[in-house]
Amino acid sequence: xxxxxxxxxxxxxxxxxxxxxxxxxxxxxxxxxxxxxxxxxxxxxxxxxxxxxxxxxxxxxxxxxxxxxxxxxxxxxxxxxxxxxxxxxxxxxxxxxxxxxxxxxxxxxxxxxxxxxxxxxxxxxxxxxxxxxxxxxxxxxxxxxxxxxxxxxxxxxxxxxxxxxxxxxxxxxxxxxxxxxxxxxxxxxxxxxxxxxxxxxxxxxxxxxxxxxxxxxxxxxxxxxxxxxxxxxxxxxxxxxxxxxxxxxxxxxxxxxxxxxxxxxxxxxxxxxxxxxxxxxxxxxxxxxxxxxxxxxxxxxxxxxxxxxxxxxxxxxxxxxxxxxxxxxxxxxxxxxxxxxxxxxxxxxxxxxxxxxxxxxx
Length: 362
Ligand code: NAD
Fold this sequence. Notes:
The chain has 362 residues and is of the alpha/beta class. It contains 13 helices and 13 strands. The longest helix has 21 residues, at 63-83.
């Protein structure tokens, strides 16, 4: 354990005994007086390789809230990279501040310097509140940044470092795997899918599902995003609160965390929950409740790993077609989880955790 702290002893005690601490290898508090940078970098586990994880910028109400978030998210990255068989550990960083008000190029460069001081143990990428342009600024001060390269496939179609299309692709093949397992169907023709949130990931996912013949129902607090899906894909617009009640095959959360909870589970009529949102289960017991209700749950960090696969192999300069193959392998991992969960009468999230832990054990 190597903790770098610039705070007092009380704070140290709260960290080691923090309920989200879970054997973190390193937690670094970063401050830069000139730019006002206040950030925390958490490295949970590096047994498989350097800790890669996004940098979130958010106006946290307190330092404690920021610490809570970074510890929880960095542990999640260890599980996500391990289950995706990536040569990476888990880490995350948070910048305390409002991205609309407090973000400056100097602040991003200061964050790049803080990342650099870890010598490659932590690799930063974009997350909510940060974007490709911010990563480019950090990249002026450190080589340990990902999610920035332009990528082109064999047909010459190019895109920026944004990993969302790969996250959507992984979610799409994950839905295919879940439908094959639960409904015994080898294609998505006529499958009814409710998508909650058609932002960066959700709208790419909707297009792929539409092309595969699925019938779409979409909700989003952003009306324009919904209207685009209605006009482009013939999707049915659904009021935000009604998305849980639909008579569909698949509920695909692509917006918020904690949407699988005591209030929503009794309302769900879908036989599959499979979407890109992080931390879908409000608590682990809700994964048990889904299984008891006979709903097949594709664990979030397994099905949404397309983005981390993308940023990982961007650093290894792997060709786009190879990255796609790795992303498509998410379907194989899900088949393994579904089959083992069924054979052992366990909820799928438990099996996913077990497989990930086997893979990142030292
Ligand atoms: P995004 O912000 O682009 O899209 C989220 C969408 O959800 C927005 O259009 C927003 O208006 C909508 N939304 C917010 N609250 C809502 C509500 N109550 N009901 C319906 N819609 C609501 O984010 P994104 O990049 O598309 O990511 C979506 C989810 O997937 C997030 O949970 C994110 O953490 C997760 N995720 C994203 C990636 C990635 O590559 N972008 C990777 C892994 C996981």
